[in-house]
């Protein structure tokens, strides 16, 4: 079993256990995760800090993940969380984008983990330290007051993610909303800007820039080429270097 699921099974106070269950729901929905969805839902239903409406939403998410085709569930997850900035699960993507500050923020976050006596496992699935499920798992190791303060530092990102998922009409929206509710933070969806696909953001620029297109055919039509002969130099024309 993965490290997150092992951590979820470790005895813990109800809020911490619920936070771990929510972290699992945001993880990649592989066969292992889908096999344990019932356990995650049972843990959440035992949580007094979540409203009936929120639990109902989480129930619909679990039902969707359980009933849908495995390939469809996994491909939808990738399309939702890995193809756009607004729905990215990497916290610093929302704050720093691709700037240099993101690297330093990542270093600082790892140091926060290490100061708490936790180290990332080498086989962490290739996820960065700011991956939301991992950040939520770390928060679950803190006492209630510290967890509330820690999650409060990125509550605005959770609200932004919640709003973006609502805009996409995704049931995953109930997960960040549940984290906010569980941790006692206000649920206040923010305005979602037009999203730029990460694939477009990383696209290479065109190799040739600035060629005039006036008078050309459409890109999908053949383009005629006109060859103009240059007149030969006459005998009376002085040659260069003569």
Helices, strands, pairings?
Blueprint: H1 3-9, H2 14-25, H3 31-35, H4 37-45, H5 52-67, H6 70-81, H7 91-95, H8 100-115, H9 132-139, H10 144-152, H11 155-167, H12 174-182, H13 198-201
Helix pairs in contact: 1-2, 2-4, 2-9, 2-12, 4-5, 5-12, 11-12
Describe the structure.
The protein has 242 residues and is mainly alpha-helical. It has one domain. 26% of the residues are buried. The N terminus and C terminus are likely disordered.
How would you concisely characterize the structure shown here?
Pfam families: Nitrate_red_del. Keywords: Nitrate assimilation. It contains 13 helices and no strands.
Main attributes?
242 residues, mainly alpha, 52% helix, disordered C terminus, disordered N terminus
